[in-house]
Specification:
single chain; 296 residues; alpha/beta; eight-stranded mixed sheet; 15% strand; globular
Length: 296
Amino acid sequence: MKRITTIVLLYTTLVVSILAQPRVIHIWHGTSIDKEDVTLTAYIPKHPNGIAIIVCPGGSYHWLDISTEGQHVAQRLNEHGITAFVLKYRVAGIAAFVTHYRVAGGGNRFPDMLQDLQRSIQLVRANSRSYDIDPERIGVMGFSAGGHMALMAAVFGSDNYLERLGISCKVSLAPNFIAPIYPVVSMVDPCTHGRSRRGIMGENKVGNQQLRTMLSMELQASKIQCPVFMVNCVDDPIVDYHNSVLMDVAMTTCGVPHRYLQFKTGGHGFGATPSKTSPEAATWFTTFIQWINTLK
């Protein structure tokens, strides 16, 4: 009898372990888009609370910090019952960063990354029941350039960029909330992060003023229809903190409901890892959890 009980316990543990493993979703599988390297990795908590967050790591639109700004963030969200999906979206690549040159055909640039995000929102919302998710509580959290992605998700929420790919969509592509963390915001102001601008626009379009305006989130704030939680640090050595200040002013002017946390110290690239930032900035995650639980 003891042997049977032991076997049952081992089997149960194995099943639970398998179910707890992150699930990799190839979001363009079955479509005409040949991008098998674009993935959405699902992190399922033991006790889902119905909230889902698509996590967009940063990397200047040239690479992705999947570890600190992806996996670790998802694991912390899981601790609070939040289902997390880490998006590995299209970026310019290391070669483009080094050489300032794209491959023949243009390489990855806008709207490629936005289409990846909209496709992810579509899949998560359309399959919300199977993930035990409330389809009206799906958000996007992004870091640095990923923060710009989160803002684009809200700004372009009513613009179906999947349609031009021949993909029909029966669910809303707009997030219910967003959380841009130390985000890249402007493409026109002197405080812009040049590397991210080049990464998303491409070398041959980086001087296009119309596109710069379109991708400057502070100039598009009136289009945001969901609550926003934003964080940054004054001593950020990578993305000028004035990016978030511009966004805060714009959202305030446009009446966008938002919470803005600005810390004097904390730097950049810390994700949700306390040891990578200052004690004051490390509190942002707890405040975010409190904030998200107030949303209905």
